[in-house]
Specification:
heterodimer, A: alpha/beta, three-stranded antiparallel β-sheet, 14 strands, 36% helix, B: 415 residues, alpha/beta, formyl-coa transferase, domain 3, 2 domains, six-stranded parallel β-sheet
């Protein structure tokens, strides 16, 4: 099977028909060793036009979004709307274990390629459909985008400033979440198939995937009737009378950026130790002196007077401003201080933690004449070789010959006819 | 009832807060028997956190601490006592899968790390999940998900360019790691079936999250660009934003990705004259004049409810959605159709909303039948039926405090 290294899904084949909305699912299955064949419409998938691009050149073979979401996949072109395309697709389904698609609900059925038809071709097949709102229901055919589904799932309302519109997370998450849940659902169906021989249809809703990422929104509404919302750098801390509501700051400025550094004490020994360590350092530098004897164990955000806590936060801010992200990260590593930098992309790439874990992996891109470093697999698995992608994302139709001639035994003449008819 | 995908799979959980519990929940939702080991003397921090039902602050009124435990069985057991460790070893011998999310080193101190469990059950699948992973300079970092979101790079990208980065109050990495890990555990179970080999899985929640920023990371790796927050703007689309609607704190999200959608939006707005001005009739023009464009669209949306805008624009094929708040999620007809919220009777709290998986399996649908247990609620079943202890043995364990019944820690988490 396509020289994948041994892993959990070695020997299983995935046919990936998805676009932007489901590409991550096949990528994750491929990361676990499955032989994933990305099937694109002739001319290439629209997701190849999603930036950012390699060296900022907008070109379908240079999309970094595509590079990442199609890592470890092979690629063929096929127009599944044509009679020949359908036949070829069904032949591929016979030898496959998973089909993943992210078309509008009903589209595959309209081509007679819905789960009911594919099940007849291969009763073991697992078909995973990833769409913004799921296969049925009043919004199933609603038009969507990352922002729209993040809003509908309740996540956008969680972030924002008081005087501005709510914010989405600044890098698209929705279709990655959909692909992620598609992966988990596919693995569950896979387990059932291996035990019983029976395949099934897995229908994913990206909106639900987003809603699952909103705690504590649902539980707080359910129990307290309180609708959670974003409040800038702080988290709201509602308190029983007579205490005024607190604004508990989570982000502070430091010398060269921001850090995540809520000022905490109380029941958690780790928090007390962390805060005490920082205050002692500050005291040695002549700062935060009025907190020299402050009892952090007795500290309680649920009762502390608001003015007092605001003053503490002010002193905390003053001190953190004298430190750099790197200095504070060192304290986190060496002295169990619970402060971490608000990383930008450079900080993330240079993280000593990720380096020590050998998280990053290099993948050769021969036609670009260089290797590109990618995020690796976040789970180390004993007894298996360390994660290493076996191939970069496919070029358009790169494996047509390998699959059509090599596996389906189509002749060169037949391929030429299919090409002339726009099937491949 | 239809067959469950993971029927017969046995899982023991030494977990707390969100990520570890969410892994077990995913397996329990599909038929796995999941036993969660807890202790009154050191309860899960989340059981002592808000919100509390009726404001009653005790571990069985803490609803957040229930949220990730549908279908599971909870036992109370003091792992710091040698006898407690002995009971735990019997559970491990019973289990196919161990999930733990304690600070690295804690399980080893109890003799219940992978090495210890492998001795009891050579083919055990043992999964550790922590913020940073088991190794590396930050391995022992004990912070929560919002810290990981900041460190992974989410916060820097979220918010407005002229303001401070926004903290990710949802603890974003907490909602990536569990699903990756649950899927991988299932793969490991099948791998064991084929090879007879167990496996140790070491999950880093940070690494799980960094993968979700891959395009931004690659843009730096390859091009040296460091992306920054930009409100709700998208690098390629315009208009792309969140607009005010009628009512207090009501908003609608609109994202236009092509000419057809733009024309649809113009049509719904009644084709006002400004849309035909050269600066708005092309995508490059709209991108260049985005601030004015956003203002003009906001002037239109503010006279309608968010629901009206969504219905009108979706009719015209325009991607648009209400910025739903907590209340909206409870009444959303689509989430209802998907049965996303499941209302179950919790023993102490009463009727409570839990969540269902985002995917539906056609032949082995999830079956969420049991509200999260109170601490130790399933002692009798687990100690007797699963572990085979006699009445007398259980009485001894209770008398010695190995099976815990009372807590002396503060019932509310102070911080």
């Amino acid at each position: 099977m396509a020289n994948q290294q041994e892993s959990l899904l070695s020997g299983y084949r995935v046919l990936d028909l998805t676009d932007e909305k489901g590409l991550l699912c096949g990528k994750l299955l491929g990361d676990l060793g499955a032989d994933v064949i990305k099937i694109e419409p002739p001319g290439g998938d629209a997701a190849r036009n999603i930036g950012p691009f390699y060296k900022d050149i907008p070109h379908p073979e240079k999309s970094l979004f595509w590079f990442f979401t199609n890592l470890n996949k092979r690629g063929i072109t096929l127009d599944i709307e044509t009679p020949d395309g359908k036949e070829i697709f069904k032949r591929l389904v016979r030898g496959a274990d998973f089909v993943i698609e992210s078309f509008e609900p009903g589209y595959m059925g309209s081509l007679s390629l819905g789960y009911e038809e594919l099940e007849k071709v291969n009763p073991r097949i697992i078909m995973t459909s990833i769409t913004p709102f799921g296969q049925g229901g009043p919004y199933a055919h609603y038009k969507a985008s990352d922002l729209v589904v993040e809003a509908m799932g309740g996540l956008v309302r969680m972030f924002g400033e008081l005087d501005r519109p709510p914010n989405r997370i600044g890098a698209p998450q929705v279709y990655f979440l959909g692909g992620l849940h598609g992966f988990t659902g596919s693995m569950l169906a896979h387990y059932h198939r291996e035990m019983t021989g029976e395949g099934q249809h897995v229908g994913v809703s990206c909106q639900q995937a987003v809603a699952l990422a909103t705690p504590p929104v649902i539980v707080v509404q359910d129990i307290m009737g309180f609708s959670f919302r974003g409040l800038g750098s702080s988290s709201i801390y509602p308190r029983a009378a007579p205490h005024e509501m607190l604004m508990l700051r989570l982000h502070y400025r430091c010398k060269d950026g921001h850090v995540f550094a809520p000022l905490l004490g109380g029941a958690q020994a780790g928090m007390v130790k962390s805060t005490r360590t920082v205050v002692e350092k500050a005291n040695r530098e002549g700062m935060m002196l009025e907190l020299k004897d402050y009892d952090w164990k007795a500290h309680d955000t649920s009762t502390i007077p608001k003015e007092r806590y605001d003053r503490l936060q002010e002193l905390w801010q003053e001190y953190l401003l004298t430190k750099t992200k790197a200095e504070l990260l060192k304290w986190a590593a060496e002295e169990e201080v619970l402060i971490l930098p608000v990383s930008d992309a450079k900080d993330t790439v240079e993280s000593p933690q990720l380096a020590a874990r050998e998280f990053w992996v290099e993948v050769e891109h021969p036609e670009l004449g260089e290797a590109i470093t990618y995020p690796g697999w976040p789970i180390k698995m004993s007894g298996l070789p360390p994660y290493q992608p076996q191939r970069r994302a496919p070029l358009i139709g790169e494996h047509n010959k390998e699959i059509y001639e090599g596996e389906l035994s189509l002749s060169k003449e037949q391929l030429a006819i299919l090409k002339a008819h726009g099937v491949i | 009832m239809a067959k469950q995908a993971l029927e017969g799979v046995k899982v023991v959980e030494f977990t707390w807060v969100i990520v570890g519990p969410a892994i077990g929940r995913e397996l329990a939702s599909h038929g796995a028997t999941v036993v969660r080991v807890e202790c009154h003397r050191r309860p899960d921090m989340l059981r002592t956190a808000m919100p509390f039902k009726d404001g009653i602050t005790d571990i069985n009124h803490g609803a957040f601490g229930m949220f990730y435990h549908t279908n599971k069985k909870s036992i109370s057991l003091d792992l710091n006592m040698p006898k407690g460790q002995e009971v735990a070893r019997r559970l491990v011998a019973w289990a196919d899968v161990v999930i733990e999310s304690m600070t690295p080193g804690s399980m080893a101190a109890l003799g219940l790390d992978y090495k210890g469990c492998k001795k009891i059950k050579p083919d055990i699948i043992y999964c550790s999940t922590t913020q940073m992973g088991q190794t590396g300079p930050l391995a022992r970092f004990g912070g929560f998900g919002a810290a990981g979101a900041a460190y992974a790079g989410f916060s820097h990208l979220t918010g407005w360019p002229d303001r401070d980065p926004l903290p990710l109050l949802n603890n974003q990495p907490d909602h990536i790691a569990p699903y990756l890990t649950a899927g991988t555990i299932i793969g490991a179970l099948l791998y064991r079936r084929k090879t007879g080999k167990g496996m140790y899985l070491d999950n880093s929640q940070l690494e799980s999250a960094v993968g979700f920023l891959a395009p931004v990371i690659l843009d730096y790796m390859v091009n040296g660009h460091i992306a920054c927050r930009k409100g709700n703007r998208d690098p390629y689309m315009a208009p792309h934003g969140v607009y005010p609607c009628r009512g207090a704190d009501r908003w609608v999200a609109i994202a236009i990705s092509n000419e057809e959608e733009w024309e649809g939006l113009c049509c719904v707005m009644g084709n006002p004259e400004w849309t035909r001005e050269p600066k708005f009739s092309t995508v490059l023009g709209r991108k260049e004049n985005e601030e004015e464009l956003d203002r003009l669209i906001g002037d239109w949306t503010k006279d309608y409810t968010a629901e009206q805008i969504m219905a009108m624009t979706q009719d015209a094929g325009v991607p648009c959605g209400v910025v739903q708040n907590a209340e909206d999620l409870f009444s959303d007809p689509q989430l209802k159709h998907r049965q996303h919220l499941r209302f179950l009777e919790q023993k102490v709290i009463g009727r409570m909303a839990f969540e269902a998986p985002a995917y539906h399996l056609s032949k082995t649908p999830n079956h969420i039948w049991k509200a999260a247990p109170c601490l130790g609620e399933d002692n009798e079943y687990v100690y007797k039926e699963i572990l085979g202890y006699s009445e007398d043995e259980i009485a001894d364990l209770l008398a010695e405090g190995v099976i815990t019944t009372e807590t002396d820690v503060p019932s509310v988490l102070t911080f």
